[in-house]
Write a structure and sequence with these properties.
Blueprint lengths: L1 E8 L5 H16 L4 E8 L21 E7 L5 H9 L4 E13 L15 E7 L7 H19 L4 E10 L9 E7 L7 H4 L6 H16 L8 E9 L1
Antiparallel strand pairs: 1-3, 1-4, 2-3, 2-8, 4-6, 5-7, 5-8, 6-7
Helix pairs in contact: 3-5
């Protein structure tokens, strides 16, 4: 099984656009041969309160991320064409996924919005590290730090294996981190330190120090999204 993650940019990221994506695409995609575990991440109005968490390194951030698994004879081209009909631009990535932290705290029914928000971070290997150094620190050190000091209730590591379209940035990883609703507006809630401002500051500093060891902050893209799993 291969995991695909496809980023879509809309002509107009309106409530009507996001409504159409959820109403029309899941059924059409899941009807295709060999496609399973469909997920949409939408940069919609439900995450407006977390807008200050956005980081854009250059080009405008995507509006929708569609993730799914395909088997060997899956109709991948048709799936991409279905998604392309909803986008002015799209970028296709094949990834190798691991889920160090699964969502057992806030499960949602299939097709329903996961509570809180999912922060999607698009990572590139910085010039000051080799790929092996970057990958090792991210996977073996930073991930556990992030889980330990934040209120994350889901963490998915997606290492980019290949980019299958010419329009996409050469990212090395796509990270998904789910947080509770309160973390949209409260740093203390984000760092699992509610009512403990000193601990919050300590954890913020710890997080920034860890990130600086494997991220060039001029090259990272971060976007809060609403997660829907089907």
């Amino acid at each position: 099984m291969r995991k695909m993650q496809i980023l879509l940019w809309a002509d107009s990221a309106s409530p009507e656009f996001f409504g159409s994506v959820l109403a029309e695409l899941p059924q059409a995609l899941l009807a295709l041969r060999g496609l399973s575990r469909l997920q949409f991440n939408l940069a919609d109005g439900d995450v407006d309160k977390a807008a200050d968490k956005q980081i854009a390194s250059g080009e405008p951030l995507f509006d929708v991320m569609c993730s799914f698994y395909v088997d060997g004879d899956a109709d991948l081209d048709r799936a991409i064409n279905l998604l392309a009909a909803y986008a002015s631009k799209l970028a296709v990535y094949q990834v190798e996924a691991e889920e160090p932290l699964s969502n057992t705290r806030y499960p949602a029914a299939a097709g329903q919005r996961t509570p809180g928000f999912s922060q999607v971070a698009l990572l590139r290997c910085p010039s000051f590290l080799s790929y092996e150094q970057w990958l090792g620190y991210w996977k073996n050190t930073h991930t556990q730090i992030a889980i330990d000091i934040q209120s994350t209730f889901r963490y998915v590591q997606n290492r980019v294996v290949s980019g299958l379209s010419q329009g996409g940035v050469a990212y090395q990883a796509i990270v998904e981190e789910c947080f509770p609703e309160a973390a949209m507006t409260s740093a203390e809630a984000f760092y699992n330190a509610e009512g403990r401002p000193e601990l919050c500051q300590q954890r913020m500093q710890q997080m920034m120090e860890s990130c600086a060891k494997f991220i060039d902050f001029s090259e990272i893209d971060v976007l809060p999204t609403s997660e829907y799993c089907f």
